[in-house]
Amino acid sequence: MKKFVFENYNALSVYAAQYIVNEINSKPDYVLGLPTGGTPVGMYDEIEHMYKKGMVDFSDVKTFNLDEYLGLNKKHEQSYYYFMNKNLYSRVNVKPENTHIPNGMADDFAVEALNYDKQIKEAGGIDLMVLGLGPNGHIGFNEPDSELIAPTHVVSLTQETIKANARFFSSENDVPQKAITMGVGSILKSKKILILVSGESKKEAAAQMMSNKITTQNPSTLLQLHPDVTVLIDKAADSE
Ligand code: GLP
Predict the structure, then answer these.
(1) Mean pLDDT, rounded, for 218-229
(2) Residue 153: enclosing H or E segment and its boundaries?
(3) Atom of ligand 1 at shortest range from CA of 39
(4) Which of 93, 115, 204, 205 is deepest in the core (most CB within 10 A)?
């Protein structure tokens, strides 16, 4: 794991955007895995700036998002589709048919999950998976548990995650209890991984992630098994 520590969130966001733009420029038909949440918002803003300056072209880029809440349609302001449209798709020239998010309104989630991993495989696999980190160590919506599921699947959110994400909804009761997420196996198959960690609330989870111990009770610790992980962390989240 390579670690880069930043003075603040803004510096981290700018570096993350530059990293992604450089990657896309090295391979125009890049396959990008993308996160939602509060952390990547600054990165998406910076990607828009760079796009407006003509520094990057998304016309052949394919994107695959990590996860989606169950039961929220695309027009729901807290759906991850809505988030992605607002923060990235509507701001750059990515083709709608090249963007992918698990469907939280699918009739059959087993089929949806199988198809999602199949689509990733058919695209040639993910070149770079960008991740955020849950305060409890979750990646995507892979929550701490005694066992983890490798492929894309439906998951019940922990109370801790529902609480953490309630800030985006009118109340805790409005947060969906379930989500569909890439599994840890789908994530670890990516060629490269970039994880963004910001803020005091991530300190403990991040320290475990970068320790030499692996536990399903902190899914991010599994990233230690991957040969090409870059951690971008701000001082508030870093323990050293
Ligand atoms: C959310 C998402 C994750 C995200 C994490 C951290 O629940 N499912 O993909 O990385 O929680 O979110 P934030 O960046 O808002 O702290």
Answers:
(1) 98
(2) strand 153-156
(3) 14
(4) 205
Candidate from 44, 64, 79, 138 with most ligand 1 atoms within 8 A of CB, to mutate: 138
Residue 204 — very low, low, confident or very high, per pLDDT cuts 50/70/90?
very high
pLDDT at 34 over 90: yes
Ligand 1 mean position to 194 CA, how many Å?
Answer: 14
pLDDT at 240: 86
**Contact between residue 58 and residue 26 where contact means Cβ atoms under 8 Å apart:** no
The DSSP secondary structure of 77-134, one letter per residue, reads TTSHHHHHIIIIITTS---GGGEE---TT-S-HHHHHHHHHHHHHHTT--SEEEE---
Question: What's 142's DSSP letter?
Answer: B
Tokens of 139: 């990646």
Do residues 199 and 239 touch, judged by C-beta distance below 8 A? no
Mean pLDDT score across all residues of the chain: 97
23, 46, 67, 238: the catalytic one is: 67
Tens of pLDDT, residues 185-195: 999 999 999 99
Per the annotation, the verdict on 67 as an active-site residue is yes
